[in-house]
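The protein record now logged underneath.
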Amino acid sequence: MTWWAVVRFLHVLSAALWVGGQLTVSLVVLPLARRLLDEERRGGLLKAVGQRFGVFTVAVFLPVQVATGVAIAMHKGVTWASLAEPGYGRVLAAKLLVFCLVMVAAGLHGWATGAGRAVFARVMALGALVGSVVVVLFATALPYT
């Protein structure tokens, strides 16, 4: 096992935890909370889950993704110019663009939830979830070199 295998593992593990967490909240926690809890308890639970997930995102996910992503890109010799080249560069550029949009949507979801804008919060949550799956799709499309 090489150092770069560990770096890639951490990058993939962090992404899997974040996307998996989004899917778990959306497909398991929310439906059960809606079905089993009254509005007050549901609100308290979902607020706590959201805050905990936000802390994980800021304290673990983003630092690991950025650090390992930059390390992998440097190891592969990626430059700003190479992001416009066909193949690895363009796929990585698309992945990075969607990742940035996902982070904006996730941040807006947190803001909208706190501001009591439920519909906008749901739209941003859905956007972040779909975007996260697209990021994973782009990641799997990156040519292995």
